[in-house]
Amino acid sequence: LTGKQGTVQQSLEQSTGTRLRIRGTEVEIEGEPEGVLTAAEIVKAIGRGFAPETAMMLLKEGVQLTVISLEGETDKTLRRLMSRVIGRRGRAKQTIERLTGAALCVQGKTVSIVGGEVGLSRATGAVEDLLAGRTHAFVFAKLEKMKRLAIEGGL
Known about the structure:
Distance between the termini: 35 Å
């Protein structure tokens, strides 16, 4: 969270108008309520495995973080589900990111997504479809159709 010589922390504090105190794994955030909420989301995104640059996208209007938890699944099921989202050599994850404009991070027992309203919604739907057992071909075709319709419709 701090980055080289505290650059990430400084950037986060300046961007949100907050003050961060980091003690081990605990982070205390002080400042105006809106800045504190934004800083907390960015800290959460970094904690979920996103690069600080990706997490800082949350500063933009309309960009949000969604975390899909797979808590309660057996280790074998968890491994299978995460593998479906990641795909061979990361291709499924990359395809979802490319077709939605959202960023995905698969870590521990969660799949986290950062993106604008439309991209976040589409990426979340795609991940949920994969977790529900839909084929990769179906999910990608659905995303491509949504993207094509958005381009044709001027969205």
